[in-house]
UniProtKB/TrEMBL annotation:
<dbReference type="InterPro" id="IPR028362">
    <property type="entry name" value="AlgI"/>
</dbReference>
<dbReference type="GO" id="GO:0005886">
    <property type="term" value="C:plasma membrane"/>
</dbReference>
<comment type="similarity">
    <text>Belongs to the membrane-bound acyltransferase family.</text>
</comment>
<dbReference type="GO" id="GO:0016746">
    <property type="term" value="F:acyltransferase activity"/>
</dbReference>
<keyword id="KW-0808">Transferase</keyword>
<dbReference type="InterPro" id="IPR051085">
    <property type="entry name" value="MB_O-acyltransferase"/>
</dbReference>
<keyword id="KW-1003">Cell membrane</keyword>
<keyword id="KW-1133">Transmembrane helix</keyword>
<feature type="transmembrane region" description="Helical">
    <location>
        <begin position="311"/>
        <end position="328"/>
    </location>
</feature>
<feature type="transmembrane region" description="Helical">
    <location>
        <begin position="153"/>
        <end position="173"/>
    </location>
</feature>
<feature type="transmembrane region" description="Helical">
    <location>
        <begin position="85"/>
        <end position="107"/>
    </location>
</feature>
<keyword id="KW-0012">Acyltransferase</keyword>
<protein>
    <submittedName>
        <fullName>Membrane-bound O-acyl transferase, MBOAT family</fullName>
    </submittedName>
</protein>
<feature type="transmembrane region" description="Helical">
    <location>
        <begin position="35"/>
        <end position="65"/>
    </location>
</feature>
<feature type="transmembrane region" description="Helical">
    <location>
        <begin position="6"/>
        <end position="23"/>
    </location>
</feature>
<feature type="transmembrane region" description="Helical">
    <location>
        <begin position="358"/>
        <end position="378"/>
    </location>
</feature>
<dbReference type="InterPro" id="IPR004299">
    <property type="entry name" value="MBOAT_fam"/>
</dbReference>
Length: 488
């Protein structure tokens, strides 16, 4: 079930909200939690009920392992050590994820390297497996560190399946979620949270349906359909995807945070205007913040972090981001995207250690363009698609300007510059250029939704903005459009 669908907005969400608080009003706390778990599993099963047993088995397995890690274990020959149990739990989780997400990738590369012809499994990736796997791995590690105090399966199931963040995050910690569900004050409707939740949800819905899906048309045409791209088409393609990805995923996160607030639950901030970043390190402190936190706490630091030699620190950075790239998708383009970001972070650290600085505008320009170029590999389905887009972006051999400029700039024909329909291959028009400019204005000149939420006051201005965003989005719900991170 999509957040941006009529059935979710006008049926599932209001029904779940009212029944949950009705049960709490009747002091049926256990029943209200059970209903929320049931609703979340129904929400998950809406896509494909065949994978419902998978998430149930995963939850039960990790609950048992987590409980084992919370208990005092006598170190003797008849019992396993906590470290052994933790390793076993992590290996099983990664094996499950690896089987569904990476089996065909490894088979393809094995066939290519050895010259064999092993049949691919053609497995359909279970929805949200990357997110609930990482979330439960974090739970196991936290249990090993004695940072969790939960022994009830119903509460654990609620932690894993809570539907606003189940499908694509934010990736949450047990210790930041369960105290909220246990707080009696959160079991009563909070009208300020409801107003703020609807405000943030409306902004997120508008981001996805109106902005991201508009850019999606040009990005999809440029990457997947067009055979060749001229200079402006190539830049319009890459920038369209850069904006599409941001407004799509941050829109999802806004909706998740807004929906959770309806239930008096505060999810962690996942985006903080990442395209305003002045360095690649700053970018990763702003982009997909909960994933960055996971990579830092459960991969980078366990590898040694920056506590060893400089070479080891740089190696740990590179390994962390290559793993992060591979988590996003089973393909060499994802690995290379992670590699690029790892190298960029190493260069930034070297630059900072040498004490060099640069102008603010130049720092932003370099950071944004690096991120934009790296996204080309992230989006491309094949290497050829990336080469096509990047080739067009940096080639001066194929420049086409709008035909209406020919009368004033006709002398440019002497330099092999043509005039005509400049955006034909990406199904664009003059509005494409306007939209890209508006995209820059939105990401650079305006406060983000989380900043607006901090000083939120229910008045005619916020009510009007919510209404405009909500109605504009609803009127644009003319077709089902999945979120990009559902693929990861």
């Amino acid at each position: 079930m999509l957040f941006n669908s009529y059935e979710f907005i006008f049926a599932f969400l209001p029904i779940t909200f009212f029944i949950y608080f009705y049960l709490n009003h009747k002091r049926l706390t256990v029943a209200s939690k059970g209903f929320l778990v049931f609703s979340s599993l129904f929400f998950y099963s809406w896509w494909n009920i065949a994978y419902l047993p998978l998430i149930l088995i995963s939850m039960l397995f990790n609950y048992v392992i987590g409980n084992s890690l919370n208990k005092e274990i006598e170190e003797n020959k008849k019992s396993f050590s906590k470290k052994s149990i933790l390793i076993f739990g992590i290996v099983c989780n990664i094996a499950l994820l690896g089987y569904f997400k990476y089996a065909d990738f490894f088979i393809e590369n094995f066939n290519f390297a050895i010259g064999t012809n092993v049949n691919l499994l053609h497995l359909i990736l279970p929805l949200a497996i990357s997110f609930f796997t990482f979330q439960q791995v974090a739970y196991l590690v936290d249990s090993y560190r004695q940072e969790t105090k939960e022994y009830d399966f119903l509460n654990y199931a609620l932690f894993v399946t809570f539907f606003p963040q189940l499908i694509a995050g934010p990736i949450v910690h047990h210790k930041e979620m369960m105290p909220q569900f246990a707080n009696n004050r959160n079991m009563v409707k909070n009208y300020r949270n409801i107003a703020l939740g609807l405000f943030i949800f409306s902004i997120g819905l508008f981001k996805k349906v109106v902005i991201a899906d508009t850019f999606a048309v040009w990005a999809t045409a440029g990457f997947d359909t067009a055979i060749t791209l001229n200079l402006f088409e190539a830049w319009a393609t890459s920038l369209s995807y850069t904006f599409q990805l941001y407004f799509d995923f941050s829109g999802y996160t806004d909706m998740a945070i807004g929906i959770a607030l309806l239930f008096n639950i505060k999810l962690p901030i996942n985006f903080n205007s990442p395209y305003k970043a002045l360095s690649i390190q700053d970018f990763w402190r702003r982009w997909h913040i909960t994933l960055s936190r996971f990579l830092r706490d459960y991969i980078y630091i366990p590898l040694g972090g920056n506590k060893k030699s400089s070479f080891r620190t740089y190696s740990n950075l590179l390994a962390t981001f290559v793993i992060g790239g591979f988590w996003h998708g089973a393909g060499w383009t994802f690995l290379f995207w992670g590699f690029l970001h790892g190298i960029a972070l190493i260069i930034h650290r070297l630059w900072s250690n040498l004490g060099f600085k640069m102008w603010t505008w130049l720092a932003w320009f370099i950071t944004f363009n690096f991120v934009n170029i790296a996204w080309v590999f992230f989006r491309a389905k094949e290497w050829d698609d990336a080469v096509k887009v990047l080739g067009g972006m940096f080639s001066l051999d194929n420049i086409i300007l709008p035909e209406k400029l020919e009368s004033k700039l006709s002398f440019l024909t002497n330099y092999n510059i043509e005039f005509g329909y400049w955006a034909e291959n990406i199904k664009g028009n003059d509005f494409t250029a306007i939209a890209v400019i508006l995209g820059f204005i939105l990401i650079l000149a305006f406060r983000n939704s989380m900043e607006k939420g901090k000083d939120f006051k229910l008045n005619y201005k916020t009510a009007l903005l919510s209404a405009i965003c909500f109605i504009g989005a609803i009127l644009s719900l003319n077709k089902a459009s999945e979120f990009l991170y559902f693929n990861f």
